[in-house]
Design a protein that fits this description.
Helix content: 10-25%
Protein name: VOC family protein
Order of helices and strands: EHEEEEHEEEEHHEEHEEE
Structural class: alpha/beta
Distance between the termini: 23 Å
Number of domains: 1
CATH topology: 2,3-Dihydroxybiphenyl 1,2-Dioxygenase, domain 1
Organism: Streptomyces fimbriatus
Largest sheet: 8 strands, mixed
Pfam family, one: Glyoxalase
Number of helices: 5
CATH class: Alpha Beta
Radius of gyration: 17 Å
Strand content: 35-45%
InterPro entries: Anthracycline_SecMetBiosynth, Glyas_Bleomycin-R_OHBP_Dase, Glyas_Fos-R_dOase_dom, VOC_core
Length: about 240
């Protein structure tokens, strides 16, 4: 087992990320070169979706965006032992269910929801697939930041929803909240920004540009490291993080 893999993710812990892309093959080329990922076809995943591996361990998945009206995005999944029950709590707390819990073969159950501010995130109830095989290492998930218009309301919503993961004795949240205007224009909608760890921020930004992506926000300091916001060559935003 990889050193940074949790044997069981506490409810509310980020446990997976996936990108919805118009062109999965182009995504494989971009992220394969950028992070050294290799890719594995998964019979349990929807048609065209692939699992990304770093040093043989699962770190993400790329899926084909089936509706052109939907954004090209990275989505974070939070672990839960019971997706149905958590969906009820999300709705009761003022969130919205975008896609009701749905089995993904023998891998687990997924659902897509929003918080009261409209930020979209996924839930993952694991079965055959517990989540990240590697994290906190170069080329793997490192952090997710919620950019929101009301941090106090967000802290209340997520604090109630994911209390143990955020505040429990074994808390390892990998999850922060900040005002949209800290980094983005004020009109930017609330959203989650997935961060991947890198060893050399400047060199990785140059590689993003070489591969057809762009730097959206140049490096800035945070409480959890130095980050830069970039987009891939299909417009999906993510962050690079140097700790």
């Amino acid at each position: 087992m990889a050193e940074n893999r949790a044997p069981e993710y506490t409810e509310g812990t980020p446990c997976w990320v996936d990108a919805q892309l118009p062109d999965v093959e182009a995504g494989k080329r971009f992220y394969g070169e950028l992070f050294g990922w290799t890719f594995q076809e998964q019979p349990d995943l929807p048609s065209g979706a692939v699992r990304a591996l770093k040093d043989g361990e699962p770190v993400a998945s790329l899926a084909h965006k089936t509706d052109g009206r939907l954004p090209t995005v990275w989505t974070v999944s939070f672990a839960t032992p019971d997706a149905e029950a958590l969906c009820r709590r999300v709705r009761a707390a003022g969130g919205r269910i975008v896609s009701a819990p749905l089995p993904v073969g023998a891998l687990g159950v997924t659902a897509l929801v929003t918080d009261p501010g409209g930020a979209v995130f996924a839930l993952w109830q694991p079965a055959g697939h517990p989540g990240f095989g590697r994290r906190h290492e170069p080329g793997s998930f490192a952090w997710v930041q919620l950019y929101t218009r009301d941090t106090e309301a967000a802290n209340t919503f997520y604090g109630d929803l994911f209390h143990d993961a955020l505040f429990g004795p074994d808390a390892d949240p990998d999850f922060g909240r900040a005002p949209v205007s800290d980094v983005f224009p004020a009109e930017m909608p609330p959203h989650f920004l997935v961060h991947f760890a890198v060893e050399d921020l400047a060199a990785t930004m140059e590689e993003v540009t070489r591969l057809g992506g762009r730097v959206q926000v140049p490096p800035f300091g945070t409480s959890y490291g130095t980050a830069a916001v970039v987009t891939d060559d299909q417009g999906a935003s993510f962050a690079l993080l140097r700790r």
